[in-house]
């Protein structure tokens, strides 16, 4: 870490990471540029190269920040799920929130957000420098999803979890190809159909 050895430096670095994370979500990797990040953070252009060794370093920090924030939100929502509604619909909603992001209430905006998310995921595979971080984040997400299913009364093993994620991914990608205005709804139907037999048997 370059430069962030004082409280002021830590705050500036954190502001840059948060700005980069927002740009990443809004426009993908191409949106994360030194000038754009500095402007979004309200800091001088030189601050990005002062606090980060490279653009790759900044992008990595942004991906980690955004993913950790989503995981933290998921853990909080899991506690609510454990003490309130544990039905199939509540489970579907939380799983999709973790895999597709939160709903905004605007179907058109949600569909665009899902498209951007999948574009970002595909683009991540073209960036070898992100692979170690993505392996760590993927393992943490799988752990959280496993706990969500377990506390919902529909525990799944590792292979079954991968199958359910593949079902969701397939439903979303197919909906995007068909220009379905509600890819989240397509994924919800697929996941609900997969979970209902297990829920009925428990």
From TrEMBL:
Protein name: TetR family transcriptional regulator
PROSITE patterns from the UniProt entry: HTH_TETR_2
Species assigned in the record: Amycolatopsis nalaikhensis
Annotated InterPro entries: Homeodomain-like_sf, HTH-type_TetR-like_transc_reg, HTH_TetR, TetR_C_31
Taxonomic lineage of the native organism: Bacteria, Bacillati, Actinomycetota, Actinomycetes, Pseudonocardiales
Pfam families assigned to the protein according to its UniProt record, in alphabetical order: TetR_C_31, TetR_N
Membrane-spanning ranges: none
Keyword DNA-binding: yes
Domain of life per record: Bacteria
Residue ranges of every copy of the HTH tetR-type domain listed in the record: 10-70
Residue ranges of DNA binding: 33-52
Keywords, alphabetical: DNA-binding
